[in-house]
Amino acid sequence: MKKKLALIMAAIMTVAMVPATAFASTKLTAVDEIKVGTDKIFTSRVELKKNNDQVDIEGETFDVYATLTNGTFAYVDDDDDNDYQMEEAGYLGTTTGVTDVEIMSNTKAKITLDAKTFNQVAGKAGDACVLPLIVKSGEVGDVVVKFTSNVTAFKTASEVIANVQTGKVTIETEGVKTFVEDATEDEKALKDITINELTPDVLKGGSIKLKLSGNWKFTEAGTVTFLNEDGVAATATIVDDDEIQIDFTHDNFTPNMLTDMTISGVTVKTAKKCKAGDVATITVSSMASSKEFSNVKLEVAKMVKEAVTYSVEDKDLPQIWAGAYNDDTNTLKLSIEENTGDILNTSRKATFTFPEGIEVADAEFSGNGNDDFTYEIDENVVTIKNYSKNNEESKKTDLDVKFILNAAPTFSGDVNVTLGGQFDDVTLKVATVKAPYTVTAKTSEVLIDYRYVPVNDIVITEAEEGILKEDDQIILGVEKMDFEDAGKVEVTEGDIDVDVDIDDNYPSASLYETRFDKALLTLTVNDESTEASTIVISGLELYLDRTLPVGGYALQNLGGYNRQNDGAINILWENSSPDKDEYDAEASTDEAYLAVFKYKAVTVNDSYVDVITSARDQDDSTTNKKIIITVGASTMSVGTETVNLDAPAYINSENYTMLPVRAISEAFGATVNWDAASRTVTVLSGQRIISMTIGSRTMYINGTPVAMNTTAAIVNDRTFIPVRDLANSLGISAINWTEASGTVTLN
Fold this sequence. Notes:
Elements: H1 2-16, E1 26-30, E2 35-37, E3 41-50, E4 61-69, E5 71-73, H2 89-92, E6 98-105, E7 108-114, H3 115-119, E8 129-137, E9 141-148, E10 157-165, E11 169-173, E12 177-180, E13 187-189, E14 193-197, E15 208-213, E16 216-220, E17 223-227, E18 232-240, E19 243-251, E20 260-264, E21 267-270, E22 279-286, E23 296-304, E24 308-312, E25 319-321, E26 334-338, E27 350-353, E28 358-366, E29 374-378, E30 381-385, E31 398-407, E32 413-421, E33 426-434, E34 437-441, E35 444-446, E36 453-454, E37 458-462, E38 473-478, E39 481-485, E40 488-493, E41 497-503, E42 520-527, E43 534-538, E44 541-544, E45 551-557, E46 576-577, H4 580-583, E47 597-598, E48 602-611, E49 627-630, E50 635-638, E51 641-644, E52 650-651, E53 657-660, H5 661-667, E54 671-675, E55 680-685, E56 688-693, E57 698-701, E58 704-707, E59 713-715, E60 718-722, H6 723-729, E61 735-738, E62 743-746
Parallel strand pairs: 2-10, 12-23, 25-33, 35-48, 46-47
Antiparallel strand pairs: 1-3, 3-8, 4-7, 4-9, 5-8, 6-7, 9-10, 11-14, 13-21, 14-20, 15-19, 15-22, 16-21, 17-20, 18-19, 22-23, 24-26, 26-31, 27-30, 27-32, 28-31, 29-30, 32-33, 34-37, 36-44, 37-43, 38-42, 38-45, 39-44, 40-43, 41-42, 45-48, 49-50, 49-62, 50-51, 52-53, 53-60, 54-55, 55-56, 56-57, ...
């Protein structure tokens, strides 16, 4: 399927009509999957090579710079601050395509690579420069190496070379073996147990003991294998029904190299008193006098009543970036185990159904030996049939599967798969999806105007460092409005380098569902971050057409394909396309377009701009703003904001609730004038002209006299009139009085 997925990108680039080198990048791979303890020296190998679509590096050699995060280059010993292990000539002799290493600081090294080795076409012998990095780990988390170069053809690349954890080892099992009550089979091989060193040479410290508990006994001791170590061997021996001892027969461990040890083929048998609900555990412990690591208890077997069990491996949920293009399995392994024979009818179809917003690119099945096994993918549903009874004697099905999933730009949260059809209706959690970056903005309540209407800040936050790459863009637009001022951009956290501008070079209609014929806000990345960054864009201003009706208008992250048609502009749309032949499997004749989504803009805030007064050329002054004011309070609520009052509402001697004219009128967008000579207040609201004189019970609306419930009064140098008189003058019909709290609500 990886070949199919590669065709997707090839097709997208063909549509884009740009040179393939526009996507060129250095291939960086961590060879060793290392887990290590805090503050420990370890060796991790990385491979550096050019991609097939990358131009060759000229010359015989060239320099790259390796920068570490959460780690430092290791000294020969702690007392020598000037002698780094990676600088030793003998060590360099074991590398491929690396001619020199110069440690510049604890976290930075200059490395000279052989250009010919680096330039080899991927897939051929000697196609990579292999560099073992000798590093001292930092705090809990990932140790990352970033490679840069002054050579233009070399593209920046980063890779996790180790994961720092607490402790000296990690001990895990691949899963729990299931026994069925009253079944004839009472002896089974357990799933593999792995012991991973977090500190070098911990396993060298002596023998290891496996102690079994529960109503089972050991019948086979199994075999022991090692990763990264050719000079190490061990034997496993049953010393009692409930105990296996592992002794190292050869312990020539390589210095600083972390070792993974796998124990396979350990077999257990049930006791007669074993019943449904019983669980078998194995406690793994060090038998060395120095007790190299703490005891770890693993659940390895259980007795059940069910004939078929469904489970996922006991590991942390893999994380998938929303919108990212994936070409490798990225879910937990899901297992279907037929515990007694001939229960599942393998000629019937069985399904794996994922939620909407998830597309399946491919599936990787194991535990099945039938050549007739087939599966089909239809967007978020995988259908299988003719899956085998892979054991000819027991006629039982043992099926494992992992998936390659793509998540839509708008999807977030856990990914649950539901097993159906021939399988029982079981739902299992296999992955989780997270947005690679977020765009947030608070609602701005605005009055209709023409030019330079200020709106609230927009905040862009990376989920982790380096998510937004050099030349990536984030394009933002507001429904039916134009950005007029890009304001200013500030990086408040992290170190990403960006610019922001107004772009009215509109994209063509062929690339989007609709033509965004307006000025858009475009943020461009000049240099990616080495620390997750937060970007704040402030001082923004919009142009609002005078005919816009009252209501909310969305801020959208438009993304998709940029103006030059050269592919996805950032990670959030890598797996999306505006081309029907790419996102629609029925329209396409090429299977390469599996798991491609139809391009859609992502709504950031569906009411980023809330227009609260209707257009000025309409002959009224209607508004949908809500004001809440409490008698005696020094503030009032105006929409989503709190406004201070220098003269609070009160109840007069005639039992009328009196409101401050200026504060209420201006909150609804009106203009208030005061004539001291005549002691008259004039309010201009839309097409309305309202006036009232202190001591009078009559107000005038567009020259028409209107009787008030009581006289206008001055308190604390502010004019007050009754609630209903003020509301009616402004055209507000929705008035609510809550006597218990003394609160008035106007809308």
